[in-house]
Amino acid sequence: MPELQELSTRPVLLWMMVEGLPILLKEIKEVRDINLARVYQSFTNKWLIRDWDKGEVRRLVSTQERRDFMKALACEMHRTTGKHEIHHNDLKEKIRQWKGFKIEREIVIAQPTP
Length: 114
What we know:
By secondary structure, the protein is mainly alpha-helical. About 60% of the residues lie in helices and about 0% in strands.
């Protein structure tokens, strides 16, 4: 599992493994079935569930719509920039452009105070 060893050398990604692996281990039959994609998926599923439970404003967009948006954004970022990060202002614009979201009311994203 060389890709998991590489993943574990980065603090944020190590955290993803710690959070996602316990769930993943319940879902797979053998340890050799663990791969990077499954770790990401397991962590993302846990994150989406936890986020949904935080309250009404988090439920303006369904879990499936969020998952679809994240996949589309990741593919676009990989294809167009090759970067694995996005500035919050650019993210806000991507959300507005993405036709998959069905938001009932505008969400105002607070700007940090200087």
